[in-house]
């Protein structure tokens, strides 16, 4: 599956309506973003059950601000609408695969209990 362009108009519904959503916050002028893009695209092709979204931080400045993006690229992972991973920096393919595996393996009942305890 190809990556999906996310904007302020479709970000929330994409995160809420899909089990696992990975989001790459990037910009065209960012060298590390350009290096990470093919790694991210290959992972999207290899994991068709996951939504791989991309947010252009130049075009979507309000969305990037709302997500508190201070460094790009930043990768976020959502599971069942809950932010479960956020890390700036370009990841090598093996590390991205590890993140995907860890997100898949999460005990979401435990995650929801932790979120409730923090609220």
From TrEMBL:
Disulphide-bridged cysteine pairs: 30-33
SUPFAM superfamilies from the UniProt entry: Thioredoxin-like
Highest taxon of source: Bacteria
Positions of the Thioredoxin domain: 1-105
Cellular component aspect of the GO annotation: cytosol
Keywords: Disulfide bond, Electron transport, Redox-active center, Transport
Residues flagged as site, Contributes to redox potential value: 31-32
GO MF: protein-disulfide reductase activity
Residues the UniProt record annotates as site (Deprotonates C-terminal active site Cys): 24
CDD domains per the UniProt record, alphabetical: TRX_family (cd02947)
Active site feature: 30 (nucleophile), 33 (nucleophile)
A family per Pfam: Thioredoxin
Function: Participates in various redox reactions through the reversible oxidation of its active center dithiol to a disulfide and catalyzes dithiol-disulfide exchange reactions.
Family membership noted in the UniProt record: Belongs to the thioredoxin family.
Name used for this protein in its record: Thioredoxin
Protein source organism: Speluncibacter jeojiensis
Organism classification: Bacteria, Bacillati, Actinomycetota, Actinomycetes, Mycobacteriales
């Amino acid at each position: 599956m190809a990556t999906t362009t996310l904007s302020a108009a479709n970000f929330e519904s994409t995160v809420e309506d899909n089990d696992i959503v990975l989001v790459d916050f990037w910009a065209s002028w960012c060298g590390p973003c350009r290096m990470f893009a093919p790694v991210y695209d290959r992972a999207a092709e290899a994991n068709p059950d996951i939504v791989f979204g991309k947010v252009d931080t130049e075009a979507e400045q309000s969305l990037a601000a709302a997500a508190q993006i201070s460094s790009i690229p930043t990768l976020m992972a959502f599971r069942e609408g809950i932010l479960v991973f956020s890390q700036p920096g370009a990841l090598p393919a093996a590390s991205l695969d590890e993140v995907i595996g860890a997100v898949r393996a999460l005990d979401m009942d435990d995650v929801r209990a932790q979120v409730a305890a923090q609220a």
